[in-house]
Every structure is written in structure tokens, then in C-alpha cells.
């Protein structure tokens, strides 16, 4: 019996990279896609790294074809590629709005559509969603579109025993914050509002994805697993 296989979009840094490393350590054959750090991911040599822009259907076709050639089929599709454009409505122009929906929503939808023939019976699909509140209306709308999509697909794909779930990270220390000009000091200050008292690590999300992909989660579909250190449950007194 061959080792399980996983395709991770947005897998060259942050949460996607941590998930690739964890799954590889547990015996998965892994392929990741991305646009950044392709030559210096630091991933194990046998992890296949493919350049792909999540908003480009030809890029998605190429990535799925590479997965088919490398693995033949997939046991996990982790739809993690996404961008953040936080800000008030006045700060969001058409380019930023289109990027949010083209990458986070369109890219997720068509990657799953095109990879669907590769998914084994009993395979797992995991979306990265994240809490949209407090980050601006456009970003909240893009992220919010993913949850009903995930739940609808969970029902649609259940007869094929393909499970579809989401993971929603809270405050996780990833390179995305640096790209938005957020300093380490700012992140640590925000951590004071996290009930568990710390910033999350990409590995925290990787463990959640690995669980959703495992047989231990074989009766879970259509669910959103929030990994936030307690944010949204209550605040510290």
C-alpha cells in the first residue's frame, strides 16, 4: 500500500509550509504550490514544489497535472492559498477587491474542481478560512464566502466519502504579517488579548489540518475547526 499523498496550495511558507513539513514527517508524499520562496523553501528534498498562482486557471491545471503525474491520486487537498487585504472600505480599491476574491474564493473553488478526479474515496479536503471579523468588510466578505462553499461541498461530495472541512486560524505568527508591515512588537501586543496568552505558531494549524485529514476525523465533515487560543470564546478579565 502506497503512502498517502497531499497537495497543499500556498505551501512554500507559513501555515502551508508547516503543514507540508508535518505531513512529510508522518509519511505523506507531499506537493506544494506557491509563488514565493520557490528556490529556498527549506522543505525536504522529496517534497515537490510547483509554481502556481491560485487565481490562474492554467496554473491550477498545471499544478493538478503535476500531482497526477507524481502521485496518481490524492488523499488530502489542503486549500491554503490566500491573501489578506485588511482595511476599511475607503482603503479597498478594485485591484485589492479582485485579488481577495480571485485568490481566496475563485482559486479555492477551481483548484478543488480540477483536483476532484484525483481525490480517492475517503479523501479529505481542508479549506483555510480564518475569522473575518475586525479585518475590514472586503476581507470579511471574501473569507465569509468560503464557509458556505465548504458546507455545500461537504454535502455534495459526501456520497463519494470525500470529507470537506475548514480550519480557521486566529492570531498566527506567519510571514503574511511582515508583508503587511506588522511588526513583531505589534503581534506580541495583540497576543495580550488571546485567552491562552500567546501568539499561535504555524505548527498549531498544521496539527489541526493533519487531524482533519486523518482517520480520527473520519466522521467529521462540513465543520469549521477554529484554532485561535480562545479568541472569540471570551476575553481575559
TrEMBL record:
Alphabetical list of Pfam families matching this protein: adh_short_C2 (PF13561)
**PANTHER family noted in UniProt:** DEHYDROGENASES, SHORT CHAIN (PTHR24321), ESTRADIOL 17-BETA-DEHYDROGENASE 8-RELATED (PTHR24321:SF8)
| Key words, A-Z | Oxidoreductase
Q: Which family does it belong to?
A: Belongs to the short-chain dehydrogenases/reductases (SDR) family.
Q: Which InterPro entries does this one have?
A: NAD(P)-bd_dom_sf, SDR_fam
Full protein name: Oxidoreductase
CDD domains linked: SDR_c
Q: Which organism is it from?
A: Streptomyces tsukubensis
Q: What Gene Ontology terms describe what this protein does at the molecular function level?
A: oxidoreductase activity
Q: Which domain of life is it from?
A: Bacteria
Amino acid at each position: 500500500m502506497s503512502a498517502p499523498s497531499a497537495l497543499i496550495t500556498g505551501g512554500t511558507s507559513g501555515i502551508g509550509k508547516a503543514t507540508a513539513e508535518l505531513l512529510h514527517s508522518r509519511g505523506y508524499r507531499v506537493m506544494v504550490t506557491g509563488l514565493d520562496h520557490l528556490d529556498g523553501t527549506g522543505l525536504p528534498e522529496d517534497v515537490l514544489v510547483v509554481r502556481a498562482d491560485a487565481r490562474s486557471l492554467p496554473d491550477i491545471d498545471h499544478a493538478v497535472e503535476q500531482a497526477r503525474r507524481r502521485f496518481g491520486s490524492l488523499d488530502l487537498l489542503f486549500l491554503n492559498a490566500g491573501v489578506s487585504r485588511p482595511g476599511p472600505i475607503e482603503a479597498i480599491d478594485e485591484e485589492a477587491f479582485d485579488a481577495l476574491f480571485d485568490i481566496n474564493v475563485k482559486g479555492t473553488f477551481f483548484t478543488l474542481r480540477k483536483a476532484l478526479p484525483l481525490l480517492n474515496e475517503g479523501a479529505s479536503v481542508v479549506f483555510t478560512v480564518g475569522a473575518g471579523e475586525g479585518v475590514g468588510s472586503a476581507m470579511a466578505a471574501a473569507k465569509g464566502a468560503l464557509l458556505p462553499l465548504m458546507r455545500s461541498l461537504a454535502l455534495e461530495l459526501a456520497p463519494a466519502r470525500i470529507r470537506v472541512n475548514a480550519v480557521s486560524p486566529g492570531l498566527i505568527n506567519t510571514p503574511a504579517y511582515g508583508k503587511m508591515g506588522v511588526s513583531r512588537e505589534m503581534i506580541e501586543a495583540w497576543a495580550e488579548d488571546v485567552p491562552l496568552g500567546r501568539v499561535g505558531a504555524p505548527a498549531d494549524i498544521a496539527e489541526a489540518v493533519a487531524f482533519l485529514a486523518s482517520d480520527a476525523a473520519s466522521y467529521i465533515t462540513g465543520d469549521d475547526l477554529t484554532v485561535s487560543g480562545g479568541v472569540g470564546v471570551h476575553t481575559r478579565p
